[in-house]
Structure formats: structure tokens, C-alpha cells
């Protein structure tokens, strides 16, 4: 289970990304019940994630597993683990800053370039290659990079 | 009349039709970043639509799922506001529409997050985070275009003037609904007044207030949109890829 990766950010496992909410065993049937939550409501990767979980559990001897999708509480980038943040940065994706009050778009001051570490960066577009990322550019090394938006 | 069903249907239809319209910009936006942005916003709207229509189907209890509600209803059965079905127009019109929609959806979803219905509360708590980004995006463009060149100012003002009559329908009082839209109007007014002021745009004064969407009486634009959205499912029921 812990080895299932996010299909669009393959350096992170679903646990590190915070979308794996619980793994339980149904006491009555003995079936494994996995609870997941989407990052964004329209995240198109959810079907692939469910299929990957199913495959991993079948390989581990639980072909009858049940996968539940919940939307409450809503996913937050604050749920990304420390190891997840480190892996994001190592993969060239600037990790999100902490989220402020609910409903408020957090100000992402000084997003550091994941390549050279410079704080001299600028946002090119607040919507990037996937729903959870924005496109940024480093003014020091000129490289564009993805930034996981605080949510 | 099933109150919560009707309410979930309205919100779900707003999001679904907005998603379909925004998706029309894909490969046609003024620049690649905007193409990606509009597609992402469309995807957010579609995500909210799926949750709301799924829930509406359960509330109705007639066995209709999200696909049945999206693909197998005629225009008179849709409950979306007229605003979202209007054609995209030029980029300024699209941004004026998105400003109005997101400045309405953000306080709506925020209020929903605190309502007694747990399902609606969960959807509201999730969707409001995305709405905040939509409002941010449309506000930036309205300000940039309004306070830009003479030509961009002219077109942004024309877009705001064109879209404004459709605002009234969004806030038509409905005291029986889980959230009465009329209670959201002050926050909406404050939000857009700030944006328009910074954009050097004049708030339109309009007495014409077209409505009817909530009763299934739509503009002709919705029929064409539905024809394109539904054709595949109607020709090949249950088609998947």
C-alpha cells in the first residue's frame, strides 16, 4: 500500500501526498477498506489511483479490498509529509507554503527555485500542468519550474 | 417539490454548464498559460458538478446518477442560471462571466460549508478553496484589461456591461433553500466593487434582469451547448474510454 505512487507526481506516494486517509479491516467481512480523498474535486487521476491501489492490494493477497472516496475533511497541502516535501524539492517541484485561514488564497512569498535555491522567482501562471500545480520561473538561473499550490 | 434536490441540482447545473463553456477555450485561448488555466478551472467546475449531481440524484431517489442527470435531460429540465450558458464572447466577456460566477460561488460554497446537511457541507468546504483561485484569476485579468490600454479598457467595460443584467438571477431570494442566495449579495457586491474600482471600470447600471434558468426557461444557447455535450452519450449510451 505504502508503495502506491501518485500517477501525476510519481516521486510521491499517496501516503506522502496526504490523499491516503485510512486503511482499515472490516471486522465483519475481514475485507480491507482503504479510504482516499482527492486533491482537487476534478482530479482526473483518481480512477488511476483507485486501480493502482486495487492492484497493490491484490498483489498483497487482498483482492476483495474496498476503496472509499471521501471529500470531508477537504484535502490540504498541509497534509503533505516532510519526506514528501523533501522529495518534491528534489524532483524540481517547489513545495507549497503553509495554508492560512480557510477560503483565503495564501500568499506564497519567496517561492525558492528548487534547482538553485534562489528566492528570486516569479509566477508565470497560477495554473500548471496539473490542477495542483502553478508554473514559476527562476530569475537567477532562468529555469522554469512547477510549484505545488498551497490549498 | 423536493427542496434539497432542487437546490443541489441548481448548483450542480451551474458548475456543469460553466465547465462545458470554459472547456470550449481549450486550444483557443490567447496564450498557452491561459489555455491551461481555463482548462483547469473547467476541471474544478466539473469536479464540483459531479459531486453535486451525484448527490442530487440520491436526494431525488429515482435512480438517476450523475450521467443520467448530465446527459439525459433536455434544456427545460436544466436549472442552471442563464449567466453560465451565455456564449464565451471575447476573452473579456469570459473573464467578466468568471468574475461574476466565482464572486457568487465563493460565498455560496463558504456558507454551504457550515450548513446542516453534511454532504453539502463537505462539497462546500472542498469547492470553496478552488473558487478562491477562480476569483483570484478572474479579478487579476479584469484589473489588467480594465486598467490596461485604451482598447482593452473599452472591451472590458463592454464585457462587464453585457454580463451585468444576468447577476440579479443569481441572488433571487429563496428562503426555503439550505442557503438563501439573497443573503450572499452584500459580499458579492463588495468583492466586485473593489475589483471594478481597481480596474478603473464603471459599475453598470441596469434595470433589465433576465431570469428563468432556475425554472428551466433558458436562452437558445443552452440547447446548442447540450447538443454538443450530450451527443456521444445519447448515440452510444454508457460509452466509456
UniProtKB/TrEMBL annotation, chain B:
Signal peptide: none annotated. It comes from the Bacteria. GO terms for cellular component: cytosol. The gene is paaI. Gene3D superfamilies: 1.20.1260.10. One of its GO terms (biological process) is phenylacetate catabolic process. It comes from Micromonospora costi. InterPro entries: Aromatic_CoA_ox/epox, Ferritin-like, Ferritin-like_SF, PaaA_PaaC, PaaC. This is Phenylacetate-CoA oxygenase subunit PaaI. SUPFAM superfamilies: Ferritin-like.
